[in-house]
Design brief:
There is one protein chain. 40% of the residues lie in helices and 21% in strands. The chain has 502 residues and is of the alpha/beta class. The strands form six sheets. The protein has a seven-stranded mixed sheet, sandwiched between helices. Strands 10-9-8-11-12-22 form a six-stranded mixed sheet, with helices on both faces. Strands 1-5-4 form a three-stranded mixed sheet, covered by helices on one side. α3 packs across α8. The radius of gyration is 23 Å and the shape is globular. The structure holds adenosine-5'-diphosphate (ADP). Adenosine-5'-diphosphate (ADP) binds next to α9 and α10.
Amino acid sequence: MVEPKLYKETLERLKALGFPFELPLEVTHYIGGEFVQGENPFPVIYPATGEVIGSAPEGRAKEVDLAVEAAHRAFQSWGKMPPSERRPYLRRFAEKIREYRPVFEVLESLDVGRPIRENRLGYVDRMANNIEFFADFAVTHGSEAYPMENGYINYVLRFPVGVAALITPWNMPSMLATWKIGPTLAFGNTAVLKPAEFTPLGAWLLARCAHEAGLPPGVFNVVHGFGPDSAGELLTKHPLVRLISFTGETTTGRIILKNAADTLKRTSMELGGKAANLIFASADLDRAVEVTVRAAFFNQGEVCLAGSRLLVERPVYEPFVEKLVAAARALRIGDPLDPETQMGALIAEEHLEKVMGYVEHAKRVATVLTGGKRPDLPHPLDKGYFLEPTVVVDVAPSDKVCQEEIFGPMVAVLPFDTEEEAIALANNTPYGLNAIVQTRDVGQAVRVSAALEVGTVWVNDWFVRDLRVPFGGAKQSGIGREGGHYGYEFYYETKNVCIANR
Ligand code: ADP
């Protein structure tokens, strides 16, 4: 294993922060309450230097079977506990996450290549809240009863579904894992988490948190590995898995749905996006640029919610683009572990190549105003998967740059003349996850938000959500909702009981 200075320093730092495992980073599965060494190791790569910083085991049939069976055994008692008995376990789980806050912050940067400053913007709190919120919600949430006209009473009981496969992507690995773990466990299901192969570190520490919180063995399991022909696919076909919560690409969602069909699993699919960011002439332009830069380049643009299509009303098009280009150029790209860094590295070499494919295409069919190349960074960062924030103009709305999810720091800017045209452009993709509307005209915000075919609209901001609202995508961006009073139904079976009055 290569140990560059940066990595050596990081290991020392992790140790000092209370990293709870032996170093170097040799990730293990977590099955039935035990950390299992595993077989078939694959490398863990730090995206900022391209170097191998550890290894993770690939779970195959043996590990998947063991984990699902452990979860199934644990379900027999966990599923029968009243929510108030489950709550203290989950609260301790959340507390452990907070205790390991600085370690999570570093691991998340090592896993994803994201700047550590972004991990310090409430990321770890949100992880803990995801678990606490549902632990409390399950306790306080009641049920409906309908006294019928004939004197009968029809009421609703809720009960857990069974073993859940939680399949997560690499862009927000620890946050997305907890958002699924929270409702899964709070409502009495048990879980096998399969983190993305690029980002096993956060899930490893989450297992440690669950372990130290004293969760009964098998309630929460982690199996590492890949998707097709590996742990991911095996989980989606396993007969004892009753529920799949998946976040990832739309194409992967389709495959998982097909694979889950034979065993008729309940599925929740949070898939890709191609969000429009509509900037109207009445918007506060400086604020609009600030929101736009965040929505476009946060996490290197590797966010399904990224505002990657900028629709700008003609009168402010030129000043907006000018300010946007200046702001993009001013972003500090570099070592994700440096607290001053504002943009880190893309997840992997093959992903950088995919994004560069869109850049090269844009150079042919449109105008690249800024970015479009790898930045000049000192060794060992010169080997990292960095790409400058990229702004493209003069591109057709039907072009693939405006239609496909690029999942990188690249945005296209299009002008529009009327509100109707803006709405039509915004809705002109197969995706429907979210949109951003920037205007100071309240009536316009209301009208446009109502007309957009998406699951979430942000007005004059981005990436803020109260956990009580449902979250998910319209059109090809997903099936179902997670979170909130509406979304939690996914994690429960219901049964209605009708009692006669005689
Ligand atoms: P991303 O590129 O955002 O990671 P993917 O959809 O490729 O999106 O992957 C998301 C998650 O789905 C990862 O954990 C990956 O290993 C898993 N995955 C990929 N293909 C499959 C599959 N056929 N069955 C189950 N899981 C899969």
